[in-house]
Amino acid sequence: MAVERVQSAIARARAQRAGLETVYEIDEDLPMAEDEEDFIEPLPPEDWNALPKSGMTARILDRARIVTAGLAEHSSAFDMMRTKVLQRMKTEGWKRIAITSPDKSCGKSMVAMNLAFSLSRQVELRTILVEADLRQPSLAKAMRLSPQGGFAEVLRREVPFPKSLVRVRENLAVLANRDRSPASAELLHSDSVPGVLKEIERAYRPDMMIFDLPPLMLADDTLAFLGNVDCALLVTSAEHTTTAQVEACVREISDRTALVGVVLNKYRSAGAASGY
Ligand SMILES: Nc1ncnc2c1ncn2[C@@H]1O[C@H](COP(=O)(O)OP(=O)(O)OP(=O)(O)O)[C@@H](O)[C@H]1O
Ligand SMILES: [Mg+2]
User: Pocket of ligand 1, candidates 75, 109, 210, 236: which has the most ligand atoms within 8 Å of its Cβ, to mutate?
Assistant: First the structure.
């Protein structure tokens, strides 16, 4: 305080010596503008329970290779991954996680679905799984969902998100895509993405949003989207992914968001995802 006064007096004396008659002093306690968020009209919360439901039969789960709907032989690797990722995200206050891989068919969608179902076994948590792979969408087909619109239509503001989300469990909803979308990178890069994600979060207050993304090295869709998430998980295929690919992806991801883990999928047997 005393130091500031002295500095102010010196500054005034200097300015007066320099011939400036009037010295304007501006208080240091100027009120700061509130966060942008505080100016946004609060939306009424959407009714989570009003979202359309789609039941998952044992057959659908099996065919989609979802092993985490209940405690099962292969669920433990995913449950461990869920617990570690969740701990880190809670500690950091993160809510959005991206799932990507270097190349196609490494198991991103399978990991995203299993992580989502594993989380859904924690009844106090609410999760939304969003398919941000607009090029090769697979979640609606895998889980036999028929949404009125997909993430692409929601981003284009063609279908509102309450009509596009489908609840597959009490505490788990999915925003999948019905078809492939042209110009997917432009759409994922567009200004509407941050707004739409905020609106969904404000409406349903999910504890976690999981984004199933396209492969990192095949197009710039994923790079365009990584700025919207808090962290990412890199899925690799034990048989196909090279060390050079992993290194390149780790660099690309780390430049944009926090990498919370690398999944070594299809490790040894083709029957289980393992390694984390
Ligand atoms: N650990 C695994 N064991 C057996 N099959 C698996 C395993 N992981 C993935 N698969 C199967 O491999 C195929 C590709 O998996 P998935 O669709 O999850 O990959 P992806 O990375 O999402 O592919 P894309 O790049 O096309 O989006 C699917 O048929 C999936 O069921
Ligand atoms: Mg996929």
Answer: 109
